[in-house]
Amino acid sequence: MGFSLSDESKNITYFPTLLHRTETNNIKKERITRVLESARVVAHYGWIPFVLYLGWVQTPNRPPLLALLSPLPSV
């Protein structure tokens, strides 16, 4: 009373196929590309406001934030 596998069941692989790995790698590459592109945009538009904020925070007599954003000179 032995147990034998049919020819079809011997060919079944339980590991991801090469096609699945390639699709997964492409998805990972797309996500990494999107994250890096978003980080580049944030760094591009946020660098100068960040430097201005650091200078404003470390000033002993801080002007009001609204006065900094106003195009009119403060009196």
Give a structural overview.
With about 80 residues, the chain is mainly α. It has a domain at about 20-55. It is about 65% helix and about 0% strand. It has helices spanning about 5-10, 20-55, 65-70. The protein is rod-shaped. The mean pLDDT is about 80. It is found in: Mitochondrion outer membrane. Belongs to the Tom7 family. It holds the Pfam family Tom7. One of its GO terms (biological process) is protein insertion into mitochondrial outer membrane. This is Mitochondrial import receptor subunit TOM7.
Number of helices: 3
Cα distance spanning the termini: 100 Å
Rg from Cα? 30 Å
For the biggest sheet, the summary is: none
Strand content: under 5%
Question: Secondary-structure element sequence?
Answer: HHH
Structural class: mainly alpha
Counted beta strands: 0
Mean pLDDT: 79
Low-confidence stretches: none
Q: What's the helical proportion of residues?
A: 55-70%
General shape: rod-shaped
List the helices and strands and how they pair.
Elements: H1 7-10, H2 18-57, H3 65-69
Key traits:
rod-shaped; mainly alpha; about 80 residues
Quick rundown:
It is a single-pass membrane protein. The chain is an all-alpha fold and 75 residues long. Helix content is 65%, strand content 0%.
